[in-house]
Amino acid sequence: xxxxxxxxxxxxxxxxxxxxxxxxxxxxxxxxxxxxxxxxxxxxxxxxxxxxxxxxxxxxxxxxxxxxxxxxxxxxxxxxxxxxxxxxxxxxxxxxxxxxxxxxxxxxxxxxxxxxxxxxxxxxxxxxxxxxxxxxxxxxxxxxxxxxxxxxxxxxxxxxxxxxxxxxxxxxxxxxxxxxxxxxxxxxxxxxxxxxxxxxxxxxxxxxxxxxxxxxxxxxxxxxxxxxxxxxxxxxxxxxxxxxxxxxxxxxxxxxxxxxxxxxxxxxxxxxxxxxxxxxxxxxxxxxxxxxxxxxxxxxxxxxxxxxxxxxxxxxxxxxxxxxxxxxxxxxxxxxxxxxxxxxxxxxxxxxxxxxxxxxxxxxxxxxxxxxxxxxxxxxxxxxxxxxxxxxxxxxxxxxxxxxxxxxxxxxxxxxxxxxxxxxxxxxxxxxxxxxxxxxxxxxxxxxxxxxxxxxxxxxxxxxxxxxxxxxxxxxxxxxxxxxxxxxxxxxxxxxxxxxxxxxxxxxxxxxxxxxxxxxxxxxxxxxxxxxxxxxxxxxxxxxxxxxxxxxxxxxxxxxxxxxxxxxxxxxxxxxxxxxxxxxxxxxxxxxxxxxxxxxxxxxxxxxxxxxxxxxxxxxxxxxxxxxxxxxxxxxxxxxxxxxxxxxxxxxxxxxxxxxxxxxxxxxxxxxxxxxxxxxxxxxxxxxxxxxxxxxxxxxxxxxxxxxxxxxxxxxxxxxxxxxxxxxxxxxxxxxxxxxxxxxxxxxxxxxxxxxxxxxxxxxxxxxxxxxxxxxxxxxxxxxxxxxxxxxxxxxxxxxxxxxxxxxxxxxxxxxxxxxxxxxxxxxxxxxxxxxxxxxxxxxxxxxxxxxx
Length: 853
What we know:
Elements: E1 9-12, H1 15-25, E2 30-33, E3 39-40, E4 62-63, E5 69-70, E6 73-74, H2 79-89, E7 95-97, H3 103-116, E8 122-124, H4 132-140, H5 147-174, H6 185-201, E9 206-216, E10 219-228, E11 231-232, H7 254-264, E12 269-281, H8 289-300, H9 304-316, H10 332-346, H11 382-386, H12 391-406, E13 412-424, E14 430-442, E15 474-486, H13 495-505, H14 510-522, E16 526-529, E17 532-535, H15 537-549, H16 556-570, H17 576-585, H18 593-600, H19 606-609, E18 611-613, E19 620-624, E20 627-632, E21 635-638, H20 650-662, E22 665-669, E23 676-682, E24 685-690, E25 702-705, H21 717-724, E26 728-732, E27 739-743, E28 750-753, E29 756-759, H22 771-779, E30 785-786, E31 799-800, E32 806-811, E33 816-819, E34 824-826, H23 838-852
Helix pairs in contact: 3-5, 5-16, 6-14, 8-13, 9-12, 9-14
């Protein structure tokens, strides 16, 4: 019997990446996935190996007494994966470690080598795109595991563990349990808190100016007041955040602006200057990780995490190059592909004679060697890719394609004009109005890509056309309009602007920003109001503690210097153990982390740390174990969770305290139980309550949040009894035997069983949701809802599939799908959810199953 044919084993991190690579290699190699990390530091006391449990450093998972040697344990759930990989490796003639090419990927490769202990040749296989050519090249030119990169990554992991595990317990003791601190996380919170402080201290400044509606030679335009008797009129940028002027300018109030407008009525206006300048704009560099996150946030309204998930899927399926990179460089092949795509789409004139080259712009660029771009030697058109991927991936690919192609296109060119118009008032004042315009004669790269902006009206391709004007030309004003303005507080950070700020400070790495932003939200430090990141009162208290007692740990420059030190470790210029020893134990001139905590813990007064004074008020806000509250003279009131710190004015606080002092509002008596029904307000907003908590018992009275359209002022006894009747049990889950209930909720009605919750798309279904329908909804992935169909009032499925299953219309926040209780397929842009029929639904589902096969 012939010996079995053995194949070299290639190991990657993700199953999707493994499938894509295996398709290129056509069975010549065995391709397997580690499904991410296989080892890490212990995350719980139970994971610490028995032989280390009594060591004083065991809780850290790092032997701080012996060169900071980490304790690595198998990641939860990965024992089976390791066994399967060892079985595949047993007869393989060679092992290729094909994890990602950044530091984290290098570390995963090292851990695989250490755990699998291969007795065959081991090769490190690296590539920044998953294409046939790239995979072949990586197999032909492997290298060894880069120990210096591993050292730098492991140092980063140990550093973050020491920081988090030493500082977080301080927060538990002095603020409240289950908080966390982190090297980059805590700095990100500080940035957001500092912006909110600026908003709290902000003083509105009012100012007025004039807008003139001017006409001449059959053309009309507007101009803004610029000077009066040679003195410039104030604009918003002339005021500091405290409302004071920063420049010597003329501030008009409503009365003076109205008088000035009246004095200009009927007066002639004369053009005194026409300044015309050539306009040009160069294209932007291709995307790196941080700029991709920023632009996807601004243009697509994606969170950083959503952007990186879509980019990961595009990379693993071979559509883009590696998405964690600090580089803006394009390879020669990519430059030619971009120029070719630009010529094909926008014409030969859109491409300059010479290629454009971009350097590495990010400080300490390290993670990969090329920008994020479409994969391959020629770029797939976005319309082609859109037919093969989900909606988020299609949108992100289109953004990447346009940015990459635009980077090799010609400058946009045009003309800018500034016009000065003068008039003399009836009172003899000489005033100047100005206006400006821009005309783009040649779009160049703007035909492919216009950068997003956090400011309205700031787009690169925005044009303002002015009529042809000449010096000395006389104009008439059809209307002189006084316009009032008020300065605005500094805008809160969005995810995009926070990413930009972190990168500007050199804090952290762009590849970690998405997880950092998710962490500070999940930990309750930040919540979202629209796109804005709002700090919680807990964030204020945490930041106050760190700034007062451990200021260096949240110092921007110190945190950025740590990134530089980690880069030096990667280059072999800095010893890892020596650096960690200095950071943790300190030196005679520089106290380390451990001594700082030991020396300063007792000096931290929780009452001082948790106190947030209100401006110009004797009321203070505090952070308690059960949420934030305000207090004065022994009277307390919970602060609603959705009330931002800068909205907690003295007037709002007074109203909350008055309501708390007055106590709950009695609505009447429940006829069924005889208990009094109350209306009250708490940290989660207004609610109704049945009865009172009895002294000496832990059983809390039944409560229900007020639904939309109800308030403390309008709620009636009947409203309260209806709310308190829920949740209602509608049956038992056949698999878990747990009750299935339906109930209204703070964010809308829902069904749930155990820990599984699903939202009802239509609030009216609260009263007629059956057990059958609830069980169907509970099969859906989280975030999806079973949608009512307009033609059937949501009572029936769209129809039945050939296999006999019901076919339903479902949606998440962004997109519509059809679902047959097993497979889900997204509707195309041309499909109308209101008119989708069973035939089209089955067609979409068959297409989705074909892709999966």
